[in-house]
Amino acid sequence: MKPFQGQALSWAIKDRVIELVLRREPCNEIGSQCLEELERFASVLPELEQNAHSLILYSDLACGFCAGADLRELYQRSQEMKKKDAIAGVRKFLERLHHVMNTLDACPIPTIAAVHGIVFGGGLELALTCDLIIADKTARFCFPELRLGLIPGFGGIPRLKRDLGNAVVRDLLLTGRSFNSTKAQQIGLASQVVAEGEALRVARATAAQMGKFDRNTAAAAKKFIKPIPYDDLRREIEIFCELFSQPAVEAGLKKFVESTSAQPYLP
Questions:
Q1: How many CB atoms lie within 10 A of CB 133?
Q2: pLDDT surpasses 70 at 267
Q3: Contact 132, 191 (CB under 8 A)
Q4: What percent of the residues of the chain are helix, what percent strand, and what percent coil, each to the nearest 5?
C-alpha cells in the first residue's frame, strides 16, 4: 500500500513498522480534518497490518505530541447551531472518534506512542490507545477538561482506569495538573523515559525487538492482557454530552478562544 500524506497526519510502512505521524499546526489538535484522516487510517489498518509487525505513533511538530481536541472548532460549532443540534453534532463526533480509538486499541500488532512536549487531553487519550508510551524528558501529561466544565471524551478515563487504576484517574482529572515524564514513568503511564529528541529512535528500536516474536502469539497475549472497556467508553460519551449542555462549558470555551496566550491549553 502506498504511503499517505494528508493535512493532519501521514503514514507509511518502514522496516515492517507502520509509522503514523501527526503533523497539523499548531499542535495536532483533533478536529474534523484530523478525524477524517484518522478514519481513513482506521479503514486501511487491517491491510497495513498484513505487512507490518508493529505500529509507532508520533508527532512531527516541535510543540509536542498533541494538545487535544480542537476547542476553537468546537466553540464555533456551538455558536452556529441551536444547542440541541450542537449536542447531537458533538455526540456524532465522539462516536466516530471512539470508533477510531477502539480500532487502534484493538490493533492486533503491538503499538507504541513516542511522545514529547504537550500530551494533553485528547492527545493523552490517543496515546493511551497504544500498548506502550515512550516519553522523552520534555513530555507533560494532563487532563485539563474540568477547566471547561467537561470530562475527557475520547476514551481517556476508561483506558487510564484499565491501565493504572482509579487513584491516578482521580489525580489527573480532579486536579487538572500535569505530570512530567518522570512522574509518568513512576505511576506506570510511560514505560520508558528517554533523552530529549530520542523517543522516536527508542520506539523504533523497541519495535524491532517486538518483531522478533511470532505475531499470532503476540496478538493472543495482547488480547488477553488488554481488554477494551466498551461499556465504560459508551457511558463516557453520555456523561460528556450531558455536561456539554451546561452553561459552564460555553463559558469555558469562550474563555479559551478569547485567550491571548500563545498556548492557552497549558495549565
A1: 29
A2: no
A3: yes
A4: 50, 20, 30
Sign, CA dihedral 233-239-245-246, equals negative
Q: Cβ neighbours of residue 179 under 8 Å, at least 6 residues apart?
A: 140, 141, 142, 172, 187, 189
Mind listing the pLDDT tens digit for each residue in 165-219?
Answer: 889 889 999 998 999 999 999 999 999 999 999 999 999 999 999 999 999 999 9
Measured distance CA(80)–CA(57) in Å, rounded: 34
Residues 109-142 have pLDDT tens digits of 999 999 999 999 999 999 999 999 999 999 999 9
pLDDT of residue 112: 98
Contact 241, 87 (CB under 8 A): yes
Asked if residues 36 and 72 have their Cβ atoms less than 8 Å apart, the reply is no
Domains recognised in the chain with CATH numbers: 4-257 (3.90.226.10)
The three grid cell numbers given for residue 101, joined into one nine-digit string: 480509538
CB within 8 Å of 9: residues ≥ 6 apart: 20, 21, 22, 23, 24, 34, 37, 38, 41
User: DSSP H helical segments within the chain, as ranges?
Assistant: 32-49, 71-80, 83-105, 122-127, 156-164, 166-175, 181-186, 199-210, 215-225, 230-244, 247-257
Strands 192-194 and 132-136 turn out to be parallel
Q: Which residue has the cell 503514523?
A: 20
Closest to 136 in 3D by CA, of 113, 112, 116? 116
Q: How many CA atoms lie within 13 A of 137 on its CB side?
A: 3
